[in-house]
Amino acid sequence: MNNSAGSTARLLWASLRALLILSIVCGVIYPLAITGIGQGLFHNKANGSEIKESGKVVGSSLIGQTYNLPLKKGQETPAPDLKWFQPRPSNGLGSNITNGVNTQYNLLVSGATNLAGDNPDLVKMVKDAKAAVVKDNSTPDYKVKPSAVPADAVTSSGSGLDPAISPAYADLQVHRVAEKNHLTVAQVDRLVEQNTVGRTLGFMGEPQVNVLKLNIALRQLVQG
Question: Residue 139: pLDDT band by 50, 70, 90 thresholds?
Answer without folding.
Answer: very high
